[in-house]
Amino acid sequence: MSGPILRVESLVKRFGGLHALSGVDLAVEEGEFRAIIGPNGAGKSTFFNALTGLLRPNSGRITFEGRDITGEPPHRVARRGVARTFQITSVFPDLSALENVQVALLAHARRSWSLWPQARTLGTARARELLALVGLATSAAKPAGALAHGDQKRLELAIALAGKPRLLLLDEPTAGMAAQERLETIRLVHRIARELGLSCVFTEHDMTVVFAVATRITVLHQGRVLAEGTPAEVRARPEVQQVYLGEAA
Amino acid sequence: MKGQYAALLAAAAALLVLPLGLTDFWIFIAIEVLAFALYAVSFNVLLGYGGMLSFGHAAFFGVGGYTAALVARQSAVAPELAFACLPVIAMLVSAAAALVIGFFAVRRSGIYFAMLTFAFQMLLYTIALKATPLTGGDDGLTGLKPPGALAQPLPYYYFALLMAGAGLYVLHCVVNSPFGYMLRALRASALRVQHLGVNVRAHRLAAFVVSGAFAGLAGAIFALSNGNIFPGWLDWTASATPVVMAVLGGTASFLGPALGAAVYVVLEVLISGRTEYWPLAMGVIIVILILLMPEGLTGLWRVARRAGIRAAPLPTREAR
Predict the structure, then answer these.
(1) Do B181 and A106 touch (CB under 8 A)?
(2) ipTM entry
(3) What is the pLDDT of residue B304?
(4) Looking at beta carbons, which residues of chain A come within 8 Å of B179?
């Protein structure tokens, strides 16, 4: 396929008088590992929610693999091959880790309507593979709610991967982790994305994490793209240092 | 797993021989337990698995009951034939009612979902009360009788056992199917499920319809055993009954609500035979039971396990 895997053109989202996104443009090439950074309230989460159909943008256009997906409901967007994780970890706490991934596999296989056979043994082999991939092989039987925070984040990654996505949207995949665990987690995501040939867009507050893996960086500020480029380019831009890097340092 | 099958076989055998030692009065009570067990379990498919608290489930129990009554009273076809088709008809009509009510109700969740189901049920209650030519109004429909030998308590008990057993089996398959897994996932996070490519609203509606259909079957079993159906079975107190039964038995277990139904019905019989203030006594007993057992009767063994009181290693969630 030619052209970017994800293209966003002049995306606008208003909440009453508040312009959460005021004309965002973005193009993500296939295989990219794109970081979206920006201070709190820059519009990062709103942007993700608009991309995945949870919020309907007021105007603008979103194309995924050349197809217009603007305004499609979340389950449609997901079926097209866009997976996401949430800033606030979102697993199914009273199901086991294995069952969490099974649910995702069943959903992907369009078996969510099946009444037969029993689900207990369906997809367990693949689910175990995915758990092993994110380093949770030994926690398969544990209720997801009993896992440590970082493990829940990795479980959510396994859930996202179960749908064989081509684009992975990660909303703060390392939120709430200690510094060392953050780096390990993002490197894990990076390695998996490479192995599976996924494109990835993630938001992140920790600059060490961003610069460790991002191929390109987009800086959002007050609902607009303030800067975009390779890590080195972005780091050098004075206005970025002013609104964001300076603040973080 | 093996132990569970053995327990299930033992329970089935017990239910088969149980009425042989009972008086007609207690057989009648046993039939009521079967009907309410199915009612409570069908309700709990929504609450315990789908996380939807329906506060208007009497709508479907009542619609099933009224449908059974109307089918039993008609004179167009032979009573035997009408009776043979009755369970299916009652389920279809209740499912249709659930489809219409659910279409609106599943758009909301939590307390708003509960209030919508409640409002629709009160609407049906009013219809039952006012549409006298069809429903008999305040007097209800009386003199219902299954045909032939089924009019006797013992044969009807076996009929009720077959119907309730089949209903519970189907519901058990539903909650353990891939669809059932989606329901359980939905309860935890509808947002997450949506982003896995699942149409959340459609799945909620389907669960609502299945639940309503089996509540309707329960209503039909009950109406024909009772011999009558009144608007009271569409009233809000009848919607509270499965809530209490499910919570009493334990919403986390498939058969918990059935156990809750048995305890509730038998308690009610025992107490109402002794005092006219039986609702007060029932209320106090239920409050105490729920305070003592926050996870219900079937939650006791989980509590025991957490407390470390375990004789033999219990199967893990995985092994089950």
Answers:
(1) yes
(2) 0.90
(3) 77
(4) 112-115
Nearest chain A residue to B206 by CA distance is A113
Which among A154, A193, A192 has a CA at the least distance from the CA of A175? A154
Crossing angle of helices A149-162 and A179-196, rounded to 10°: 10
Q: Which of A134, A164, A194 is the last residue of a domain?
A: A164
Q: Show which of residues 49-68 on chain A sit within 8 Å of chain B, judged by CB atoms.
A: 52, 54
Structure token digits, residue A147: 């896992």
Does A91 sit within 8 Å of B189, measured CB to CB?
yes
Q: Which tens digits make up the pLDDT trace of B1-60? A: 577 788 889 999 999 999 998 999 999 999 999 999 999 999 999 999 999 999 999 999
Phi, psi of A136, rounded to the nearest 5 degrees: -120, 25
Calpha distance A64→A61 (Å, rounded): 10
Rounded Cα distance between B152 and B13, Å, is 21
CA nearest to A163, candidates A82, A62, A70:
A82
Same domain, A18 and A74: yes
Residue A98 in contact with residue B317, Cβ under 8 Å?
no
Structure tokens at A55: 């919020």
**A131: containing domain:** 91-164
CB-closest option in B176, B182, B188 to A112: B182
My answer on whether A23 and A39 are in the same domain is yes
A164, A182, A213 - which closes a domain: A164
Looking at the complex, report in whole angstroms how far the Cα of residue A81 sits from the nearest Cα belonging to chain B: 9
Residue A86 lies in a domain: no
* Domain count across chain A: 2
Q: Give the tokens for residue B121.
A: 């049920």
- The residue behind tokens 């309230």 is A41
Same domain, A215 and A99: no
pLDDT in tens, A144-176: 999 999 999 999 999 999 999 999 999 999 999
Q: List, as one string, the DSSP characters of A62-83.
A: EEETTEE-TT--HHHHHHTTEE
Q: Which residues of B touch A (CB under 8 A)?
A: 173-174, 176-182, 184-185, 188-189, 191-200, 203, 206, 316-318
Spell out which residues of chain A touch residue B173, defining contact as CB-CB under 8 Å. 115-116, 118
Identify all chain A residues contacting B189, using CB atoms and an 8 Å cutoff.
90-92
Span B212-255, pLDDT tens digits: 999 999 999 999 999 999 999 999 999 999 999 999 999 999 99
Peptide bond preceding A4 in cis form (omega within 30 of 0): no
Nearest to B163 by CA among B23, B260, B26, B36: B36
Candidates B171, B173, B195, B295: best to mutate against A (most CBs of A within 10 A) is B195
Find, among B11, B3, B146, B120, the residue nearest to B59 by Cα.
B120
pTM over cut 0.90: yes
Rounded distance between C-alpha atoms, residue B152 and residue B164, angstroms:
18
